[in-house]
């Protein structure tokens, strides 16, 4: 039986495949997969899903391993084993506001995809805020007057800059992570050990 790896589609997928190739794994079937969501290589079964769904497949043991952003782990806190950091997907979580605009004294409204992280961040400050959940392009919310600020991922800062926003406070650092199903780690230890070791070695040389 081949180990099953759930891979976050999009940005993380691209970076993981480059990294995986650098470890001498064959990624040809994955690059040429077209619209297929399940692909077998000589050594693995891969499934492609959105980040939060990757954690669900790993939590349920459908996938033995998962490749996912740490932001997703922080937001949804799935019951998985957080095995190791990967050398890509580096970003931080930040509260951002419109440049030159005063931070209002009244109860503030914050837009985010990350409502749990936002809630915890303001709770720690002892501040009560209204939170509006958005699914993407969160930078629009202050510009259009939906919110006073946003809590979102920042990497280069270009998206904020190009939309007239600035970081008010950065508060968490993330990278992509390899996660594992807790029982797979025990039951399939021999099957998973080679790939886990290869990933660890790859991380060490980066
Ligand atoms: N600008 C960024 N820099 C570094 N890592 C990022 C950045 N944006 C997202 N990520 C990481 O990549 C993961 C997937 O993000 P991506 O934008 O590919 O998908 P998404 O946010 O689910 O959006 P979509 O709806 O387009 O799939 C995030 O969970 C995060 O860990
Ligand atoms: O600091 P930067 O390098 O500009 O990166 C930050 C942007 O990247 C992510 O968006 P993504 O591209 O995933 O699109 P989304 O807004 O639809 O999630 C994030 O939500 C920011 O918008």
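-> sequence recovered:
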């Amino acid at each position: 039986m081949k180990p099953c790896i759930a891979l976050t589609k999009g940005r993380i997928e691209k970076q993981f495949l480059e990294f995986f190739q650098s470890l001498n794994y064959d990624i040809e079937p994955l690059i040429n997969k077209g619209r297929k969501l399940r692909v077998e290589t000589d050594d693995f079964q891969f499934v492609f899903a959105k980040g939060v769904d990757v954690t669900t497949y790993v939590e349920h043991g459908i996938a033995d391993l998962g490749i996912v952003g740490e932001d997703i782990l922080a937001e949804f806190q799935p019951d998985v084993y957080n095995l190791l950091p990967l050398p890509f997907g580096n970003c931080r979580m930040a509260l951002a506001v419109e440049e030159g605009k005063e931070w209002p004294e009244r109860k503030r409204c914050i837009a985010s995809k990350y409502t749990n992280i936002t809630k915890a961040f303001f709770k720690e400050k002892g501040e009560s805020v209204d939170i509006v959940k958005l699914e993407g392009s969160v930078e629009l919310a202050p510009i259009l007057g939906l919110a006073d600020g946003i809590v979102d991922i920042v990497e280069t800062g270009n998206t904020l800059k190009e939309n007239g926003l600035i970081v008010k406070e950065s508060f968490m650092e993330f990278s992509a992570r390899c996660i594992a199903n807790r029982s797979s780690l025990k039951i399939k230890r021999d099957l998973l050990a080679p790939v886990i070791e290869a990933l660890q070695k790859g991380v060490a040389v980066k």
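The chain has a mean pLDDT of 97.
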